[in-house]
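quick one if you have a minute, typing this from the bus. theres a chain ive been looking at and ive put its sequence and its fold in token form underneath. please have a look and point out which stretches look like helix strand or loop to you. anything you notice is useful, everything is just below.

***
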Amino acid sequence: MHLRAAERSDIPALARLIDVSGRALSVGHYTPEQADAITRHVFGVDTQLIEDGTYIAIEHDGRIVACGGWSRRRTLFGGDQTKTGADPLLDPATEPARIRAFFVDPSVARRGLGRRLMAACTNAARHAGFRSLELVSTLPGEPLYLASGFTVVERFALSLPGGIDVPVSRMARAL
């Protein structure tokens, strides 16, 4: 499986992967209504990550089967549809880099792709001068992040359209 920087031309494939992953890997963690709401209203491609060169795709047999990234920008989570203004740069000396938007095709889940993405993101953020990382995790993602050295800082619920609340957690770790 080949790891590479995501490109603008990947956006349709990334969007499909995010939709499939968001719904299928939420089974057993969220109700179908919660999975649908978070997938439609929160998950999605953040094109700023692609432009910054910090979003990674993993390909297998010419198909993107996993994606995820890190960011030196203030946005903590969400795709383009959640953006409401400027996304300023963080100060690596005083602020944590963000781990963003990890999704894996259900057909290849639990095969170490998330760990490969995390290693690449962690190394890149460290190389960029960051001393810590922060993210917002869904319930299905929490085991990967805990295994990667993150701790839960805060649990909260995203209030989404239709009166649907989806539990998530803010997590952090030092580099």
In short: Strands lie at 2-5, 55-60, 63-71, 97-104, 132-138, 151-160, 164-174.
